[in-house]
Amino acid sequence: MNAIVKIAGSERYARCIQTSKRVRWDVEADVIRGRHFDAAHKFLPDGLSLADAFTTLSDDEKRFVSQIQGRTYANVFGLVERFINAKVLELSHDHWFGDQVALEALVRFSDEELKHQALFRRIDAMAGDVLPDGYRFDIDPNAVAHAVLGKSTWAVLALTLDIELFTQLHYRQSIEPDAGLSELFKDVFLYHWKEESQHAILDELEWARHDAALTAEQRDRAVDEFIELVAAVDGILQVQAKADAGYFAATCGRAVGAAEARAIEAAFLEAYRWQYIHSGAQHPHFGKVLSGLITEDQGRRIQAALATLH
Ligand SMILES: [Fe+2]
Ligand SMILES: [Fe+2]
Questions:
Q1: Which of 73, 80, 202, 204 is the least crowded, having the fewest Cβ atoms under 10 Å away?
Q2: What per-residue confidence (pLDDT) applies to 6?
Q3: Measured in angstroms, how far is the CA atom of residue 254 from the centroid of ligand 1?
Q4: Which residues, given as ranges, of the chain have pLDDT below 50?
């Protein structure tokens, strides 16, 4: 790496530290502020919950779906942040006896992800206070983290950048402009997004740094591993779509026939694939960074894999 690239990189790590200090928030004092959820409000906006895909449901039932999906949204972030944080701590090793600014930026990143996991556990419990009993999120974050971290760093960083960019996109495009949402739910994702912005910059810096040390063969294998990780994410989404559709049918207060139950489960899965796979894959900056690292043939392999998830 030449000296100019090195200085530019170090400056970007330093700016992440400055912004991280400026936007830093506390779960209770800044985000929760003694508030509670109210079942009269939506949690996730229609643009993310894909309310229109639930064609058999009334408006009140669609609001309930947005609350179920909002609770799952918090739980999925809590889940992915387990492996993201472990990978960030692992990457920090490369800077222990090197760039101390980069090391500080990654330590703050890790500290923030631990705080976010605590926030999302709190949100899950608070949502449980106002929603019917019986909700399940049984996917073990540690088991997922072990499986994800078994893949190469390149593949994990690709997935991580994708996730950390779509948190920003979801907030700006869908959550912020929706006037019908719970103010507390909105604030959770406003504050989350403020710290995620720095994470996405650090992901990109670390991904480029790591990529520069790979051979073409290693990178080609990593592209396949990224595709395997996206398929694993889809497996998780299928499990949770089934669980959430079952919870809806059991608690919505009316009988749901077999055909309608299948349609509701399909709509949950469509929404989750949009939230966690396609919205990130279509993110312009993710596409730009990814295409800067891979060949056209590798890009076609990724697109072909994504196209099967509909
Ligand atoms: Fe986070
Ligand atoms: Fe993050």
A1: 204
A2: 65
A3: 37
A4: none
Cα(235) to centroid(ligand 1), Å = 22
Q: How far is the CA of 114 from the centre of ligand 1 (A)?
A: 8
Query: From the CA of 127, how far away is ligand 2's center (Å)?
Result: 22
What does pTM read for this prediction?
Answer: 0.95
Is the Cβ–Cβ distance between 42 and 66 less than 8 Å?
yes
The reported pLDDT for the residue numbered 8 is 73
pLDDT digits over 208-225, tens only? 999 999 999 999 999 999
CB 78 within 8 A of CB 141: yes
Alpha-carbon gap, residue 185 to 249, rounded angstroms: 24
Question: How many angstroms separate the CA atoms of 24 and 188, rounded?
Answer: 13
Please give the torsion angle defined by the CA atoms of residues 199, 201, 206 and 212, in that order, rounded to the nearest 10 degrees: 160
- CA torsion angle 208 210 211 217 (round to 10): -170
Residue list, CB under 5 A from ion ligand 1: 116
For position 2, what pLDDT does the model report?
A: 58
3 state SS of 269: helix
Ligand nearest to the CA of 163: 2
Task: Report CA(142)–ligand 2 centroid distance (Å).
Answer: 17
Q: Find the 109 Cα to ligand 1 centroid distance in Å.
A: 9
